[in-house]
Amino acid sequence: MTTHSTVPGKHHDGRIPAPVAARPLDPRRRLQLALAAVWLLDGILQFQPYMFTLSFGKMTLYPMASGNPVWVAGPVHWVTTMNADHPVATNAVFALVQVLLGIGIACRPTVKPALLASTVWAVGVWWLGEGLGGLFAGTANPLTGAPGAAVLYGLLAVLLWPSERPSAFPAAARIGERPARAVWVLLWAAFAYLVLQPANRAPGAVQGAVTNALTGAPGWLVQLGNHVGKLAAGHDLAISVVLAVAFALVGLSVLLPWRRAVTAGLVGAVVLAALIWVFGEGFGMPFQGMATDPNSGPLLVLLAAAYWPARRSIRTETATA
Predict the structure, then answer these.
(1) Mean pLDDT of all residues in 29-48
(2) Structural element, H or E, at residue 33
């Protein structure tokens, strides 16, 4: 009787098996990892020394209640008071939660609970930390991040929920193409509506937004911002109208039946997001050590990537797998 010994990693005839190629990341997983990276960045920013002082509550949280109705301002005041009583402990919790959300989304076994938790956390931050983006205070301005970066975190968590279903673009895999397109249209329609509000088309509104966003920035960036602000002076209404039209066109682009038109609209969204991030949000205003997140600009770029049309070959392979 002949016996055969088996060596780990080899076939029974002694041949070493060919290495198995690593499975490439699908677009949705790449977007999930990008979202995880942003959450980690938020957590790191929350560990800045300023965040552990009383000034964080007074200068960052408390102003979010201004102009808001009682049901919005009340909870904001409560969080501010809690932070004032225990600034180190509360901020440590804020920072650790965001770091854990990033790690959870980055790890496949925990991606679903982490995305669910990030949605809940984003809603809480939007209400208690952003005053619902100023929507009820009459101060919401897309140029400065309205309706709030937290909304985009929650929205991305829903759109990027794991799914094996083939779709025309990553954001539609879980909720379907029509609902996903409706979300995009409504978001950009909201931008168009908000930018036309009286406070955002008033004289000096655009110049003020640019100047405030670049406070404390490097000299060359401040000079560039001042130049842009001077060019915008006296043209606030016209700029608001142009931006509203641009926002509307970007929103409607995903409804068009032509791939190139959809792609052009998404490229337009990226360009608008970049301009807003630089001149309206000042890169999230990290220059003074007070930034809690990069603001809405990078998230809008990530959202546009989630709507990028899938290649036909990828869709075909997924459908036949």
Answers:
(1) 97
(2) helix 27-46
